[in-house]
Amino acid sequence: MLPEGRNRPAPSEEQPLAAPPPPAVHPSFVLATKAYLTEQDIQNSLRALEIDPTREENARLHGVGLIDRTRKLLKLPIATFETAATYFHRFRLVHRDDTYFLKDVAAAALFVACKTEDTLKKSREIVCAIFNVNAPPHEHMTSDHQYFDNGSRVIISLERLMLEAAGFDFRTRHPQKLMHKLTKHFNVPKAHGITASLILLDTYRTYVPLKMVPVTMAFASLELAGRLENQRSEQLEKPENYALWHTSREEIMGKSCRQTLFDLLEMYTHSRVATHIGDNYPADRFLTVRIPLNQEAKEKNYPRYTGWVDEAASKPQTPAHPLLPVAANREPYQAETAKNYPVRYIFDPAIAEAEGLQVSKFFELEEEQYEAEE
After folding, report:
1. Pick from 299, 328, 344: which residue ends a domain?
2. CA dihedral defined by 279, 218, 38, 36, rounded to 10 degrees?
3. Contacts of 81 (CB under 8 A, 6+ apart)
4. I want to staple 29 with a disulfide (CB 3.0 to 4.6 A). Which of 158, 165, 253, 343 is the partner?
5. Three-state DSSP class for 17?
6. Is the distance from CB of 203 to CB of 217 less than 8 angstroms?
7. Domain match, 224 and 145 both
8. What is the side-by-side order of every strand in the sheet holding 326-327?
9. Low-confidence residues of the chain, pLDDT below 70?
């Protein structure tokens, strides 16, 4: 209260009014890391980014091929290539291709993979190797050239985005060891095993590593190699043998995502030049192999996409991005309103779901209705 004899000053007309409080935004966004994705997750991500399927396939094959050639020039192990290809795929499912140069994304993926697999390479070395891969031999340069200063800074700045796209999940899975065990267990011929190993590398040019466990990839590569060489192994395709390796015929032919064999055959049919074994066979060979697989899938009623949820017709044509964080009040991530707030990454989706449901109760709007007396 004001003391007596002192009047309250009249409000000045020139005094600005107080700004309204900003809208309440929960300062915490949660992203549950997904070790594996479904085909529906991948397609919804591409649709949310409005990426043309044909352009996406060409960019994917070109980017993974660039990573593979750079890996060979730097003499890095296959495990580093597989991890880099996985990071490359996950980055492109979150960010549009017209936002960054493809070679920078490939370099950043390889840079992060070198750290994950403990095959450390400097950013300048990777940028220099990518330049030398695409340049004639007489134009090759060394990594200490000042030309690579800007490229080095770019991939270092992309490193954080690469880790965010991967959900800070550094768990890596490599199917090569399982492939060697399977070849020894089933006495696979050496030539057959080499072809299967090359097919296994070609799976990283598709989204199969994001959808399938390593044992499924190894089984599918061995079976496809046998079909291409007309050396099918009955022991390899027996149901009881699948159970020994904790997988099934249904999983090879199409569990939780697009069938592994069909993914590979589609790539070999349309883009065989960009693969390891595509040029080793005539184009009609892959069509010949695919016909009996289609018949088997039809006879045994193997689904093309298992776990596919039909979206309601009332939903918009462009769905919400399934790989971006979600606010605690269950609202989707919006970059313009949430860029200044932290994002927490959780490995267990069940914990993230339980936390979101518990916190969302505090964001429910409670309204009371009153009858006005006349």
Report:
1. 299
2. -120
3. 67, 68, 71, 113, 201, 204
4. 343
5. coil
6. yes
7. no
8. 326-327, 29-32, 343-346
9. 1-28, 239-240, 248-258, 302-320, 322, 325-341, 363, 365-370, 372-374
